[in-house]
Structures are given as structure tokens and as C-alpha cells.
Amino acid sequence: MARKPALANSHNETIAHQTLILDNGACTLKTGFASGDEPNPSNCHIIPNCIARSQRDKRTYIGAELYDCADYGELAFRRPVEKGYVVNWEGEKAVWEKTFMGKTARVKCDAHETNLILTEAPHAPAALQRNADEMVFEEFEFASYFRSAAPNLNAYAPSPFPGATALPCGMALETILLVDAGHTATTITPLYHGRPIQQACRRLDIGGKTLSNQLKELISRTFDVHREDWIVSEIKEDVCYVSSSFNSDMERAWKGGLKDPREVDSTVVVDYVLPDYEEIKRGYTRPHETNVSIRNRALGMSNGRKEHVVTIGNERFAVPELLFTPTDIGMQQEGLCGTILQSLESVPKSLWHVFLANIVVVGGTSKLPGFVDRLEAELRSRVDETALVRVACAEDPIKNTWLGGARLAGNPDVLRELVVTRAEYLEHGDLWTRRKFAGKTTR
Amino acid sequence: MAGPLRFRTPHIEELHTAHSRHAPGFAWVAVPGGTAPADPSKNWGTTNRKRAGNKIGGQTEQQREAITARQQREVDRRIRELNSDNSKDVQIPIPKKEAGGPSTAGGAPARIGKTTNTKKILASGKTFAHYLDDEEAEIARTGRRDGDLDVAAPAQQRPSKTPIARRKIREGSSISNSPAPSISMAPPPAPRALHTSLSTEAMDIDIEEADDEDDPLPPLPTAAEMEALLDAPPLTYNQARSAPPPPGAPPPRKFCETCGYWGRVKCSRCGVMVCSVECKDTHDQFKCLKIYA
């Protein structure tokens, strides 16, 4: 990428010494400074990208303050990021200021002395891109700035495949098919030397949020958790898994009919003890007890302790199944594998095999147990036998985009090529800046 | 076979007027003979709707359309709800003193911006749907997106929003000529032949092409082709959406509303699926909406 160092030098400007990477996700923002040659993921802070209001203590929590919250019951959320894009800058500004400025900042940052690498979701409407650029330069006044679609940065992260040679900083992996299973949606991006094949990018509108909301609906059939967004997403993280054999799991979790009751399989059906935030700070699972009713437990009649327990059976795998079969809720989109194949159709045939053999999965939703195995198995069954299908999950799927950005920033020459300085922005304007980030113009 | 005492008008035919509206809940129903109820006085041609509804062909085309449209709306609403970002019905203002930062020294609200641009952005109450509509309108009006100024003005015969670059690419030799999923609102997805074509292609390579002297793999794209591919403008939000399953795909699975097991029986009143007598009882007792009767 550092093809034109001469050009960079001719433009007699240098960029600031420190670079802040900000992966501005819909659920959490992942941020931290790039630290030289080998960025350390422990420099990356995961901060809730939301403003939450507790009905119980009537407090409003912004960003990382949420970690200090003592009671996650009935939290209401306001998220500045909608569908993956920063739409509400008023809220986002509050979260950023809380994170980067002020006394309690987790990542203290002087914008005037800092380069910013900011991610956005792919396919952003231009008006939103302009808003982001204007906010970064005019409101926060960062010294220089590079805005990239989040998937692209993953090409600069280390390859998750065993036996891959480590590339130097700022060098992109040759070909990867990136599957970003995020909070809002799951995107497919074929990356060729770090650049996306735009016509082949696809999005499946199922993300972690969809799964949490679906689980919320399903649990609410027996126990009302409609207002417990936080707890339900914890339940999802604790019990949900991607089934490798959906039909047989379904049978194992079935209680049977009136005439032929069956024993449910206790490896599938579990009880989940909900947190009460007095003694239990975080819910946990335990083996299913069939004979105690919800009401008796709530009254403390079973073992002397009052507790709320929900039984979770086929919800454990039927909810993540939406990723692979969106038609289960009537969504007219193909599942993850179908979407990947749709994406490949727009790629030259000769590259299909390369992409199929280099599928990298990132994003919080990919942490669901069984996700990678199912994806690999289903893809293998849908392409012909000669094709090698390799799917690997990044070592830390949540921080991988950040890591890629940090490794990109580890090479100042490459970074210099990509960023727009504040002076340039003021000189050339916002349209030029957008075109520059789209790779359509050079200095 | 003739049900007694029906409207025995010789022949009723609905004439298509210019403004024919399918009002849900009202339509001419052909009453199938033989299933007329015992009490003829109640038979106004409507009493066996429930049963008729379950029979194939028991409804008119319009009724079915109205019902599926209604169910589709219901499904869409539900998906929107599942994909909603914020908690429902809650307004969370940003606390003033918490807003921090130097700009709020005088107790000014957080939305004050430093420049006119940022002031506007911070005060904006637009949602993502607004931005999306704006962009679609812009594309429909000018034929291009904001960023691709270097793209030549689009040819007139471009009703679809397919970016120009993609069309160019498709003419390329080495590139799959399977139609890219039609992203526009056109409902029927172009029949896609990837899975079959992919396997047959590969078969060709392995078995038949072995005899032929043609090179076994499709040629790698040239640098120029690759450059064109990488330089193409990004798809819009709507274009990037995954296409619906192909027509040959298995029908959607149905699940029991009460317990989540396979939905094996349909509630005759509301059309919801249940799995067993037990679940049907629960359904009847608490959940049956009786709206699709």
C-alpha cells in the first residue's frame, strides 16, 4: 500500500504520533491506542455504546459507567448507533466524551494530538458519512482521521488459520472472506489485499440483537422478561448454542404429547436462575427440575430461597438457528450460508476456491458455541466436494477489527497514505474527504 | 349436493371496476356444496367460512391475498420489532452535568455544536429510515450516489438501481454470469443456479475437461479486471441485503406457538401452529387471537 512515499513527503505534513482506533459498534465500542509494532489486545477497551436508564435507581448511565451499575434489572437503552450506523450524534457525542475526555475517561485522549481510525458499517448512506466526518473534524477536532468500513480492517489482523505466516504491520492478508456477525446484522465482505470487492458485499439482517429480542419473546411465553434487555442478552451468552443437528436436538428437548410423555434430555433443557442483584449478581444455569413450579420457587417454597427460575429448552438452539434459517421468523432472506454463496456469485469464478478456503469469522455473535462448525459443515454440503472449505474464528472475534486497525496504524507510511489531516479537510472540503476514504482520489 | 336456501341468483359475477379494493373481511365466497350446515336458516353463504378457510380452494383468490397480506404485515412488524435498537417507549435524555467536556462549562445542553454543521447534526432528530429514504430518493432522481462523481452519467435505460460498474463487470469473461440477486423491490428473485452450476462446473473440470485440452480452471482475472472490480462503487444499503431464498428452497418451517416444537396442527380460528393437544389447550385458553377467522 505504501506505493507513494514520495507523494506523502511532498505534502509537507506529518501526522500525530499517537493513533486512536475506534471500532464504533452498535452494541459496544472497541477503542484504544495503537502501540507500536505489535499491538496488544489488552490496550483495547470494550465500552457499551449506549446510554442506559435504570428504572430502579433513576440514574442514567453513559458508556462505561454501565459497568458500575449495581442492578441491571429493567434497564432501558438508548443506542446512538442504529442499524450499525451512527445516527444520533447527540448521544454518540455524550458516549465519546465520557470515554475520551473528562476525569473518568477510560481512554484519555487529546484529539488535537491524535490520529483517529474510525469504523463504520458497510454501505453507509453518504449523508451519514458526511455527518461522521464533520463531527470528527469540526466538533472533536482530531488531527487526522481515517474512516473505514469495519470489515476491511480485519484484513490487517493476524490470520486465524493455523500455520499462516505472520505478516508485518500494515500488510493485508491476500484474500479473506470476512463474515462479521455483529449486533445489528451479519455482513459478508470478500477482501482482496485488504480492499473489498464491493459488488459482492452482502448483509443478512440478523444480528445478536435480533437473537436477544427473539429469545426475550420466547422466554416471555412463560415468564415476562420483556423489559429485561440486559439480562436476556446475558442468558443468550450463557445458554444459547448453534445446533449441529437441529432436528434431533428438537426431539431431545420435547416433553412429548399427553399420551406419550417423554423424558426431556437434561443436556439440552436447563434451568436458568435469574439474577436478583441482591445475592445473585449474574444468572447461572443448573440442571432442570421438573417438579417445582415457577410460582413455588418465587415464593421460596422449594429450597427456602426465593428465586426466579426460567426453564430454557429448545430456545437454546432455535434462537441462534435464525442466523442459518431466517425464514423461521418469516424473514425473506437466505441464511448465512446462502448469503455467502450469493456473495461469491459476484466474484470471479476463479477466486471462489480461494475465498471458500479463507473464511474468517469475527463479531460478538460468532462466539456462540458451534457457530463455526455449523457454518463450515453447511457450506461444505452446499458446494462441491473438490472445494476446500475452511472457516476460522478470529482469536478474539470482538477485538479483531480493532486489532487490524492497530496493526495498520503500526505502519506510519501506510497510515499516512490513508488519513486526511484536519488542514486538508478544511482546505478540500467534505466531498473530497469522502472520496479520499472511498479510495477514489489521491493527494 | 345443493345446499338448501342459498342465494339462488342465477349467476353472480364480480365485475372488475376501476377501483376494485380487496377489503379484508368481505368478499364474494363460493360456497362449496355438500358442506352446508344443518340449520338452513343460518346459511347465508358465510357460516361455513371457517371450514372453507381450511379447504384448499375454499377461499377466493382475493381472500387469500388479503389474509396473506395481513399475515405478511404482521410478520414484517415483528421482524422490525426484533431488529429495533432502542428500548420501546422510553425517552432517555442526556443528563446535563454528565455530558462533560469543555463545551458544557456554562451548563449548556450537550447538543450545542461548535460549528453550524455540527450544530445541525447534533440537533437532528432524523432516524436511519429517513437517511435511507433520502438516499434512495437521490439515486432515483439523479441516478447516482453522492460519492461517485467520477462515474459517467448513467444511461437512460437504467430503471434498476444496479450500479453501472456491476454491469460492466458482468460482461467480463471470467466472471460468473449467474444473475446477481435482483436487489430492487422486484419480488421474484431471479432463479439462481449457483449451487448446481458450481458443482457441475467442478465436475466438468474434474471429469470431462480432463479429456478436453482446455485449461482446467477458469482463468484468473487479469490485474485490470481485478482493479475494475475493486474500484466499483459500494452497493447501497438496500442492494446489499441478502436475497430471498430461491423458489426451489424448502418451505418455511413452522413451530408450535406454545412450546417451540414443530408446529403440526393449525389452529382453525387464527392459523397459528401448535404441536399437540396440550399446547392447543394452552393456546385456546390464553393466546388464540381469532383474527384470521
Automatic annotation (TrEMBL), chain A:
Give Gene Ontology CC terms: cytoplasm; nucleus
Cited SUPFAM superfamilies = Actin-like ATPase domain
Q: Which controlled-vocabulary keywords does the entry list?
A: Cytoplasm
SMART domains found in the cross-reference section: ACTIN
**Annotated InterPro entries:** Actin, ATPase_NBD
Where is the protein localized? Cytoplasm
Q: State the family named in the UniProt similarity comment for this chain.
A: Belongs to the actin family. ARP6 subfamily.
PANTHER family for this protein = ACTIN
Q: What does this protein do?
A: Component of the SWR1 complex which mediates the ATP-dependent exchange of histone H2A for the H2A variant HZT1 leading to transcriptional regulation of selected genes by chromatin remodeling. Involved in chromosome stability.
Assembly and oligomerization: Component of the SWR1 chromatin remodeling complex.
List the protein's name: Actin-like protein ARP6
Name the source organism: Acrodontium crateriforme
TrEMBL record, chain B:
Is Heme tagged as a keyword? no
**GO MF terms on file?**
zinc ion binding
Lineage, top-rank taxon, reads: Eukaryota
What Pfam families does the annotation carry? zf-HIT
Disordered as annotated region, ranges:
32-112, 142-194
Residue ranges annotated as compositionally biased, kind Basic and acidic residues, are 71-88
Q: What is this protein called?
A: HIT-type domain-containing protein
